Amino acid sequence: MNRMSGETALGLAWIIALVASLAVLFIGEVLGQTPCVLCWFQRAFMFPLAIVLGLGFWWRDGRVGRYGIALALGGGAVALWHMGLYVGLVPERIQPCTATGPSCTDDNQLVFGIPIPLMALATFALIGALSALSLKDTRT
Q1: Where do the TM regions start and end (predicted)?
Q2: Which terminus of the chain faces fewer neighbouring Cβ atoms within 10 Å, N or C?
């Protein structure tokens, strides 16, 4: 069985972060869907992932996965909180959205029938796992 090299894992993590960054820009700028507060916080973690992982891949820095894990954990924590709000596990009274702005729990949080918080959580989890996998070659 072939195992994935650290460089391949880092490249995949970078591609996923880049596609996710471009997708949220498309949703916001082309489709006109205004991001809620929690989506902005998740963007604050996703955009640096695309840059940091891309530079690490370009420079063949096998240890850049450490930063990928840290950013993915931060973004994943926000996405998990957002998912809790979306499904109703987190009480609505601590919801950070304003009455006039976009809501973290509205139907506009769906893209192709999938909640945006769920997509973000899965994306951060995958990037974090691939970043951790990219570090295994640097331990020897």
Answers
A1: 42-60, 67-90, 110-135
A2: N
